[in-house]
Amino acid sequence: MNNGIDKIKIQKAVNDILEALGENTQREGLKETPERVAKMFEEMFEGIRYTNDEIAEMFGKTFTHNGRDIVIERNIPAFSYCEHHIALMYNMNVTVAYIPNGKVIGLSKIARIVDMVTKRLQLQERIGTDIVEIMQKICETEDVAVIIEGEHSCMTARGIKKPGVKTRTLTLRGKFKNNLDIKNELLNMI
User: Fold this and answer.
1) Which residue among the candidates 19, 32, 57, 84 is catalytic per the annotation?
2) Which of 11, 124, 133, 136 is catalytic?
């Protein structure tokens, strides 16, 4: 585990950015902005402090279950920041599916895993891969799928400026990837 962020360094960097923009860092509205941003970053990027293995350990409590039916948790709201522009990935909905292999995880733990993974500088594609890897470790099954749909402010608010454009990613492992019937069943269910 990484011990945390250096809030003093962030405060200085934010102050420098404000000055570089031509702002008066001593005006009333900006005096405390560097401290607020540092505190916000500590919250928004909490997931950077943990590896996938550590997240799996954190949320790894499972229950014995002998069923082999598909478990799906749909429309988990999430947001993250892209590592290319530190731009917001927003209106994200994450769906996680798995086929138990003797173990099931509490449903709230799946949403907590999504939250922790998205609290990193990310790529949408890596979010899916990280969630799959953590779920595989916890549930000891290869059969995991993650579907994500989200908007990216680097597409909607800057650059090409195309509001409403959504990016979908599908991360499939095990039977979801290799068995067409199971893959189609999943896609029909969501």
Assistant:
1) 84
2) 124
Question: What is the average pLDDT across 24-51?
Answer: 96
Confidence of residue 2 (pLDDT cuts 50, 70, 90): low
Start-end ranges of CATH 1.10.286.10 in the chain?
Answer: 7-44
Mean pLDDT of 16-39: 97
In the chain, where does the domain assigned CATH 3.30.1130.10 lie?
51-189
122 classed as catalytic: no
Q: Report d(CA 162, CA 150) in Å as an integer.
A: 13
Distances (CA, A) of 122 to 48, 66, 87, 174: 10, 35, 10, 24
Query: Which residue among the candidates 32, 83, 125, 140 is catalytic per the annotation?
Result: 83
Select 51-189's CATH number: 3.30.1130.10, 3.40.1190.20, 1.25.40.80, 1.10.10.10: 3.30.1130.10
Entry pTM = 0.94
Question: How much of the chain, in percent, has pLDDT values that exceed 70?
Answer: 98
